[in-house]
Amino acid sequence: MERTARSRTPGLALALALALLAPAALTAVGGGTAFFSAEDGDWSDPAVWGGGLPTSADFVSIGHVLSVTQSGAFADAAIVGEGTPGTLFVLGADLETQQVIVGDDALGTVIVDGGALLTSVFSVATSPGAQGQVKVDSGALACDTLALGSSFGDSAVFVVEGGAGSVFADALLSIGASGQLILTPKGPGRAGLQPIVAGSVAFEPGSELTLSLAQANPSLGDSWEILEFNGTLAGMPTVSAFGPYEVALVPTTTGLGIVVTDVPALVDIGGGSVVGDPVELEAQGALTPNSPLTVTVSGAEPPLALAWLSLSPVPFPALGGTVHAHPFTSQFLLDTSAGDVTVNTTWLAGILPGTTFTLQVIAQDGTVPDGLVLSNALRGTAH
After folding, report:
1. Most CB atoms within 10 A, among 23, 205, 314, 327?
2. What's 18's DSSP letter?
3. Per-residue pLDDT tens digits of the chain, which is 383 residues long
């Protein structure tokens, strides 16, 4: 995503001090007014603030659920979650401030889903006992300094979801001991996850970097560039993945990447028809040389179904689902005249670890116009 944010004024030393100290209360530096949320609603509604609207010289404290959906949202400084929990949605419009604190003495939540949040200092749960959570679904969060957690904060979670959200920290990205950065790719490459762009990056001991990979259905060796920076890199986080995956940090020419180093032997990647009677494909096995492998097909109408196996699948939509196992390398007829089918076999020796295949079943169904339905697909990886 191209940078379109306005220039932000505070210098790095001031930004660092503000972000890392995270005072319990802020005073608008321009001599402006303090606004406190009075009810849930839209930022641009004066009733939300008890009358009037904040300007770029004013301080705001958010202890309700507020949404930014129209242009003209400004503040000098904002706390989300002061005294009572607060939530701020940035939805399709821009919010411009000089400083944002997420989570002070109550839980603070910020969700960016379209539009942009533009600020100089953005800090999440950096004060003692503070809790804050941020999620960037789409649009952009752009700042000079982004501080996530600290050695005395309680819980700071920052989630970047998929490839439609962009995060910029022009001067510094600082992740403290209580900070957890969660990245959720939606697929391979930049279309599935945009890297965070920063000046310098600092990881404090105890900080965490976690990948949530269920939506990406990764294969062994899939990788993403997760950080781009043009300054220095200090420290490294603890790295992990949700679910049965193993990942590792790797340096890239411009920053840090992450690579999938291990995946489950068998993964359900969906694709079954949403019409007709469901046909379920299941399998159990380690896919190691000479290990047992059991494949079960349930719900297929008699008398026959067809199993497809593909080594280089190119998915496409069909029959109310997705054909994952095409072009097929092999196909097998299954006798469904007696109902569910279970095949017990042995995984062959000599298949190189990391070799992948996709298995799917097409079955008859007289209740749908095409007379055919798809099962879910399974992706296997030899170990």
Report:
1. 23
2. H
3. 344 433 444 343 334 444 444 333 444 445 689 999 999 999 999 999 999 999 999 999 999 999 999 988 999 999 999 989 999 999 999 999 999 999 988 999 999 999 999 999 999 999 888 899 999 999 999 999 999 998 876 789 999 998 899 999 999 999 999 999 999 999 888 889 999 999 999 999 999 999 999 888 898 899 999 999 999 999 999 999 988 899 999 988 889 999 999 999 999 999 999 999 999 999 999 999 999 999 999 999 999 999 999 999 999 999 999 999 999 999 999 999 999 999 999 999 999 999 999 999 999 999 999 999 999 999 999 99
**End of a domain among 245, 262, 279?**
262
| Residue 310 belongs to domain with CATH number | 2.60.40.10
Q: Report the domain count for the chain.
A: 2
Virtual CA dihedral for 249, 354, 306, 297, nearest 10 degrees? Answer: -70
Q: Could you identify the residue written with the tokens 């929990």? A: 85
Scan for tokens 């190189």, then name that residue. 352
Q: For residue 82, what are the domain limits?
A: 12-262
Residues 253 and 281 in one domain: no
- The neighbour count for residue 82, using CB atoms within 10 Å, is 23
Residue at 275 is within a domain = yes
Close Cβ partners of 148 (under 8 Å, ≥ 6 residues apart): 123, 124, 125, 156, 158, 173, 174, 175, 176, 179, 180, 181, 207
Can you tell me the distance from the alpha carbon of 275 to that of 350, in angstroms, rounded to the nearest whole number? 40
Whether pTM exceeds 0.85: no
Q: Please state, as a whole number, how many other Cβ atoms lie within 10 Å of the Cβ of residue 326.
A: 16
Final residue before a domain boundary, out of 203, 238, 262? 262
Same domain, 191 and 294: no
